[in-house]
Specification:
Layout lengths: L3 H11 L2 H20 L4 H10 L8 H9 L13 H16 L5 H8 L10 H12 L1 H4 L1 H10 L6 H18 L6 H14 L1
Helix pairs in contact: 2-3, 2-7, 3-6, 3-7, 4-5, 5-6, 6-7, 7-10, 10-11
Length: 192
């Protein structure tokens, strides 16, 4: 696996300045969430760092990457670069950074949509991506991190992210993929 400093340099060169800062912020947020949830902080940091590695690649390059993916894509994933970069990133992390840890690759792959029955690392990266303080807002980050003083609140914080996303998509009259609805309904049931 490529060392963290080399990955940071690759990200600095291949991402926009904002996405580079976001990636660093997500890595730090993932580490902080992992600490609250008694999970491997270094692994969470690494997954957070690489989660958006394909974000600024041209759409055609992202499609080329997912064609080599060792996993099936969900319906609609290839329709939108905002979603496609996640599975493309999992392939890129394996091919460019030599990441072989399937848990890290899966966390990268699912960080935008999530799925029913996410692993702990998938949950951590999903939430860290949505709340990191560098580009998303420090106040919200600190409030959500404080809520995780009780690690059982992790799913509640993730559900709040889904609620925000669904409201935003409805307000902009954009399509909501079935995966998002499925996870939202699952979390509602899980938390009752």
């Amino acid at each position: 696996m490529v060392c963290t400093d080399e990955i940071k340099e690759w990200l600095r060169v291949n991402l926009t300045a904002e996405k580079y800062v976001h990636s660093l912020g997500t890595a730090e947020a993932a580490k902080a969430i992992a600490e609250k949830c008694a999970y491997d902080e270094d692994k969470a940091y690494f997954a957070g760092l690489v989660h958006d590695c394909a974000k600024n690649l041209p759409f055609e390059k992202q499609l080329e990457l997912v064609r080599r993916a060792p996993f099936e894509l969900m319906e609609g994933e290839t329709d939108n670069a905002k979603i496609l970069h996640a599975p493309a990133g999992a392939v890129l992390a394996r091919e460019i950074f030599n990441v072989e840890d399937e848990e890290i690759l899966s966390a990268v792959r699912w960080h935008t949509l999530g799925h029913v029955g996410m692993s702990m690392l998938e949950k951590i990266i999903f939430l860290a991506d949505k709340i990191e303080p560098e580009t998303r807002g420090r106040e919200d980050y600190e409030k959500r991190l404080k809520a995780l003083d009780n690690p059982e609140m992790l799913e509640k914080e993730i559900l709040d992210c889904y609620i925000y996303t669904i409201k935003s998509l409805v307000d902009r009259q954009l399509k909501i993929c079935n995966q998002t609805i499925d996870v939202y309904n699952y979390l509602l049931k899980f938390l009752k």
